[in-house]
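for the writeup, i need someone to sanity check this before i put it in the appendix. the sequnce is what the collaborator sent (i think, or maybe the updated version? ugh). structure was predicted straight from it, no edits. if anything looks off just tell me and ill rerun, i have time this weekend
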Amino acid sequence: MMKEYKRGAGVLLPITALASPYGIGSFGREAFKFVDQLLEAGQKYWQVLPMGPISYGDSPYQSLSAFAGNPYFIDLERMITENLLDVNEVEALDYGDTPEFVQYDKIFKNRFLLLRKAFERWNKRCREDKCKETEAFDQFVKEEADWLEDYALYMACKIHFKQWEWSRWDEDIKYRNDQAMAKYREMLSDEILFWKFLQFRFFQEWRELKKYANNKGIEIIGDIPLYVSYDSADVWAQPQLFQLNDRMQLTNVAGCPPDDFSDDGQKWGNPLYNWGKHEEQDFYWWKRRMKSCAQLYDLTRIDHFIGMVRYYCIPSDKTAKSGWYEKGPGIKLINAINEAMKDSKVIAENLGVAGPDVDELLEKSGFPGMKELEVAFNGDPKNEHLPHFHQKHGVVYIGTHDNETLKGHILYEDSKKLQYMMEYISAENVSQIIRKMMRMLYMSVSDLVILQMQDILEKDNKARMNFPSTVGGNWKWRLQEGEFTQAISKELKELAFIYNR
């Protein structure tokens, strides 16, 4: 069943990239200010990247939980006003010396120092004075127990075992022996409470921000990876749902075969789902996951939609070239997702080599697919990403977090392709391409158009968010105070008016 998606425009800017004095964006005043800026610019959508707690590599697509939120986004200034932190404590720490980029090593070291101080004071206050948040906290823990209990214990054990992944923990807790689970719950009770407290704060603040945005007429587009990380509470808590051997080791992992973008293919390393087990349980885990997304976002973009139709299996000890395709769950999973999402909407990331089977499932799902202008201008007028092939029920971008910025792309584009691009968008010279491309995007018949903030600001590849298949140096770029100017806001608002967005 196809759902209606209101015609509009939006901006892709992850929470991490919001301007903030504390090294990384948060749900604080900078987020509320950005909502106001979007409203002023005539925008109807704000797209963010996955908001889960990150691990090694800092990728939001390799999260420690499919359900939990990133503690980095908790507002420190709010904790100051609530006397959980002192302003001098907050300002005394080093959050990095490069305002344009997140320095994750310093954030990891110092952010948790403050969050632990805040928790200790909150916990003491609640125990002694029965603070007003006690009832709300208890209610949150009860409502989210389905995932929160496992996640909090997982994080407490992870700290206990010096940040090792769960497969290296002691055998009893690695295999979730009943006696071991009871032992660690008692031994690490304070640490478990700390991680529950962080999730309580995260969801409390996010819901207030989303409500503020929705009241302004702005909808939030969230993003989730199809696959979860091996080192995650999800895999540790329910290993039967993934392709692991009796020793809880990975057998086959996710990735994609060699193609025009990668001669060797890509080996992502995520555990593949045991789809048979999921089907036996009527996709209960997926229904919980998507119901959670429906509560967090107005629209949810599912990364790597192709993997629902067919997924690429790579033996854990082989390269991507040794992989093969297996059939995915298809319409059975789509039906489960639609059942869980109810009125909330989904966007399918169907980029790459799709094929008729993917197109067929996309049509059956009712989800809009995606097009990217950055890959449209290869000189072939039959390229499906060109605007004359766009469909009303769709979402179009210049590029996403995995692409070069448009300016960076232009600098290295083949001269013949660049000439075709300029002729198509009626650009007289290279300097006009970005603004002309933005206008072309707004002209599209597609319901939704989304621009990366980096492209709006005409940033080069120093501001690129991610280089796929690389670790380190990604997910760092940040918006600076004052860069989203009134002149740019006025330009976007005029485009939105002209093209009925």
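The chain is about 40% helix and 10% strand. The longest helix spans residues 189-215.
thx in advance!!
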